[in-house]
């Protein structure tokens, strides 16, 4: 959701269920964005530049969540209330407001399930473990899984280790990574138990929420989207296509190209990807009007103006966001 972020962040929402009066410091909801040291091996240097980086990324997380919830981004109205701990004042920040696209996360999780159930397949032990996790809806230990299904504990550990992208293991417990993954896995396992051939159909149902099955042309479109990290969302009358961060190399004599050259190269790559997608879309016998009338967005890392002027290798870049109508992007 934040292509230019690199810090692991946890978002929390606090709301005290019972409070004595409205002056209680927890009477009003709180939103917190926190840097999570337990999710990284990186050690940050304690200097002014690092502090600004942490503040900016945390601010952008908070702004994005507030904007997605339809809340004011500035104080001064009735949204924010001061108490003994927090002020209701606007701070200075260079953070930008990024639109959240949770469909990208859903697509990544769908791809994980697709990989395990169709491409690689699930071993009997993996199927048993996932089935238990989905049914119980909570956290169990590998030992409990082994005893429940009459398996050796080491075999269960090895099976869990081969699907770290589906389950989380910590403090001796195992749980599914998300409710959405649980729903996909449950749906796929229930339908795939009878025969391997039905696993493809089951996963297609999970990925597309449709009954038409994963034929060769549909599979090609999904493979194209996964190969390029593209997220698409289909609405009633059109589609929205998130191309992610575009890796564009402009034909420039400069060691560090001008920002406008990078953007032009990115737009050429966008046009190429949109045309590829359009060809695959029509191969599926889908309505080409729905594709043409859709929208697209992408981002590209461009050198800052100062870096471009120096014409030397540098890491000084900024993220520029692009977007528009598909019919224009097709050229």
Describe this structure in words.
The protein has 331 residues and is an alpha+beta fold. The protein folds into three domains: 1-100, no CATH class; 102-208, Winged helix-like DNA-binding domain superfamily/Winged helix DNA-binding domain (Arc Repressor Mutant, subunit A, Orthogonal Bundle); 216-329, no CATH class. Helix content is 44%, strand content 15%. The chain is built from twelve helices and eight strands. Helix 2 packs antiparallel against helix 7 (197-208) and helix 6 runs antiparallel to helix 7.
Q: What does the secondary structure layout of this molecule look like, with pairings?
A:
Blueprint: E1 9-14, E2 30-35, H1 48-68, H2 102-119, H3 124-136, H4 142-149, H5 153-161, E3 167-170, E4 173-176, H6 179-192, H7 197-208, H8 216-227, E5 231-234, E6 239-246, H9 259-283, H10 288-292, E7 295-303, H11 305-310, E8 317-325, H12 326-329
Parallel strand pairs: 6-7
Antiparallel strand pairs: 1-2, 3-4, 5-6, 7-8
Helix pairs in contact: 2-6, 2-7, 3-6, 4-5, 6-7, 8-9
Helices, by number, come to 12
Distance between the termini: 28 Å
Number of domains: 3
Main pleated sheet: 4 strands, mixed
Structural class: alpha+beta
Rounded mean pLDDT score: 77
- The H-and-E topology, N to C, reads as EEHHHHHEEHHHEEHHEHEH
Q: How big a fraction of the residues is strand?
A: 15-25%
Provide the low-confidence segments as ranges: 194-206, 208-214, 307-314
Brief overview, please?
The protein has helices at 48-68, 102-119, 124-136, 142-149, 153-161, 179-192, 197-208, 216-227, 259-283, 288-292, 305-310, 326-329, and strands at 9-14, 30-35, 167-170, 173-176, 231-234, 239-246, 295-303, 317-325. By secondary structure, the chain is α+β, with helices and mostly antiparallel strands.
């Amino acid at each position: 959701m934040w292509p230019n972020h690199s810090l692991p962040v946890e978002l929390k929402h606090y709301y005290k269920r019972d409070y004595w009066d409205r002056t209680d410091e927890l009477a009003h909801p709180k939103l917190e964005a926190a840097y999570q040291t337990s999710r990284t091996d990186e050690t940050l240097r304690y200097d002014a530049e690092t502090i600004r980086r942490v503040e900016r990324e945390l601010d952008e997380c908070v702004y994005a969540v507030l904007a997605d919830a339809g809340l004011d981004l500035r104080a001064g109205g009735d949204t924010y209330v001061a108490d003994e701990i927090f002020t209701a004042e606007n701070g200075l920040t260079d953070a930008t407001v990024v639109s959240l696209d949770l469909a990208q996360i859903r697509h990544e999780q769908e791809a994980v399930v697709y990989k395990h159930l169709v491409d690689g397949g699930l071993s009997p032990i993996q199927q048993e473990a996932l089935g238990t996790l989905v049914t119980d809806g909570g956290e169990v230990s590998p030992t409990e899984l082994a005893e429940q299904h009459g398996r050796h504990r080491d075999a269960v550990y090895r099976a869990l280790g081969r699907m770290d992208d589906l389950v989380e293991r910590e403090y001796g417990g195992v749980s599914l990574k998300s409710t959405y993954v649980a729903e996909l896995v449950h749906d796929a396992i229930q339908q795939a138990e009878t025969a391997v051939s039905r696993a493809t159909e089951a996963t297609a149902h999970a990925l597309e929420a449709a009954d038409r099955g994963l034929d060769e042309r549909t599979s090609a479109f999904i493979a194209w989207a996964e190969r390029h990290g593209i997220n698409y969302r289909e609405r009633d009358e059109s589609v929205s296509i998130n191309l992610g961060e575009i890796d564009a190399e402009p034909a420039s004599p400069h060691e560090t190209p001008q920002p406008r050259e990078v953007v032009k190269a990115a737009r050429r790559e966008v046009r190429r990807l949109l045309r590829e997608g359009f060809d695959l879309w029509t191969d599926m016998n889908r309505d080409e009007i729905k594709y043409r009338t859709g929208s697209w967005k992408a981002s590209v890392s461009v050198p800052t103006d100062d870096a471009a002027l120096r014409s030397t290798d540098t890491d000084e870049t900024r993220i520029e966001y692009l977007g528009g109508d598909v019919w224009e992007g097709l050229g």
